[in-house]
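User: For a reading group we're discussing how well predicted structures match intuition. Take Solute carrier family 35 member A1. Before you show the prediction, I'll give you the sequence so everyone sees exactly what went in.
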Amino acid sequence: MAPPRENVSLLFKLYCLTVMTLVAATYTVALRYTRTTETELYFATTAVCITEVIKLFLSVGILAKETGSLGRLMTSLRENVVGSPKELLKLSVPSVVYAVQNNMAFLALSNLDAAVYQVTYQLKIPCTALCTVLMLNRSLSKLQWFSVFMLCGGVTLVQWKPAQATKVQVEQNPMLGFGAIAIAVLCSGFAGVYFEKVLKSSDTSLWVRNIQMYLSGILVTLIGVYMSEGAQVLEKGFFYGYTYYVGFVIFLASVGGLYTSVVVKYTDNIMKGFSAAAAIVLSTVASVMLFGLQITVSFSLGALLVCISIYLYGLPRQDTTKIQPPSSETESLKEKLISV
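Assistant: Thanks. Here is the predicted 3D structure of Solute carrier family 35 member A1, as structure tokens, for the group to look at:
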């Protein structure tokens, strides 16, 4: 007898989360390897651009399989891409916001101590949960909120690195740094939840949405290449420093990006955050075995907190992976944020 539809859906969600976690962990380890062993480092901005191009072609290929024929594929692209400039503009929002987030994160890192940056940047986890509640009209229990903040603390400890003394004095502006980190945190939460809302608010194919977003992503990343490393790229070439290992890292990033969109479509951004945290723990453990990194007390405690938070968040609860209808006007904000 076939399993109930709900069980199949649950198994599919678990499969997507597991694959995303494993791909993200493998990507992190492979990236660490290329950045520590390659003598001629490639340009990171060009790698991001190529990743967007690969994700676009993979999405077109999956959409072709979904539609079943070349004619229907061309019709779908003509209707949803060429003939829908408003939809393209709508899906360009996450790409632009993510670009702002990355630049603000870099500005914050330049004006804050590394330890302060590590702690404050993890506020993107509860910020994502807050955006999920406010933008998608969902509710989280007290235990779920507790697990979200526990995850935030766990990830901070896992990535914690003691401050190191340096002879180089860098002039920093803490106020500018905190302002930049606040913008980066808000952008991270908003962009992810916005994309989730677009995915779940219509019956448009996930792969069509991906194509729409990756087209704008390619444009944004090309602008990023020109602004940050344009002179070096023109001098040394777009593919300077590329090896087979770099190609493997880019491929992993592309596959991980596709699975991320699947996870957002069929679960939510909060679960994506838990999956990303698990990937950080797994990649660090793998780095211990492959690169001889030392396990610290802070990492052990942080990994324990991450595991406990995942367990607590996964306890039986109301389904939060679907957009709920708007609540009545008499419902208070407190009741919306915390439902017991």
